[in-house]
Amino acid sequence: MIQLLSKPALLLLRQLARPLLSAEPRTLRALAADLQPHDWLALSRICAAQGTAPWVLAHCEASALPLPPPARAVLRQGLAKTLARTLDADRTLARIAPLLLEGPSPPCLLLKGRAVEARAYPPGVLRPCVDVDVLPHPDRAAEAVKRLTQLGFIETARSPSGHVVTFTERDGSGVVELHHRPLCPLRFPGLASRGATADLFVRAQRGPTGWLAPDDVDHSALLLVHLLFGLHGDLRHLADAGMWLRAVRPDGKALAARLLDWQAARAGAAGLSEVQAFDPQAVSPETAAALALLPADVLPASLARRAARLAQRKQPLLPGWLDFVGVLAHLDRPLPALLRRVRPPMLDVD
Question: How far apart are CA 298 and CA 229, in angstroms?
Answer without folding.
Answer: 16
